Amino acid sequence: EHLVNEPFYRNHPALVDLAVQRSSRESMQTHYPHLCREPSDAQCCKTWADETIGLDHMRSPDQIAKLLKWGRWDRMRLRVGEVIEKNMRSFNKH
Q1: What DSSP state is assigned to residue 36?
Q2: In terms of DSSP H, where are the helices of the chain?
Q3: Residues near 13 by Cβ (< 8 Å), separated by ≥ 6?
Q4: Looking at the predicted structure, is the pLDDT value of residue 94 above 80?
Q5: What's the maximum distance between 2 C-alpha atoms anywhere in the chain?
Q6: Is the CA virtual torsion 57, 53, 50, 30 positive or negative?
Q7: What is the pLDDT of residues 30-63, one digit of tens each?
Q8: Do 18 and 2 contact (CB within 8 A), yes or no?
Q9: What's the distance, CA 40 to chain centroid?
């Protein structure tokens, strides 16, 4: 019921039932049996966990900022472009 109001599922209502089914205990036991053990039978799943969270693809905050062009000069270039575009629209109206 709470998924129906999430923006993603509002745009993809057909996926609500699938998400509910996939998060059921039975589905978890089918797809991730190594996670569904008694604590006394638990296994270390570090390799699986590292792969699942994408540890090999982890980037530093500086690398992410550079990839997303969040640096000071990138913001300045963007702002200059916005000002030029605004002035061009204003100029073309007259």
Answers
A1: S
A2: 7-11, 15-22, 25-31, 46-52, 61-67, 72-93
A3: 4
A4: no
A5: 78
A6: negative
A7: 999 999 999 999 999 999 999 999 999 999 999 9
A8: no
A9: 34
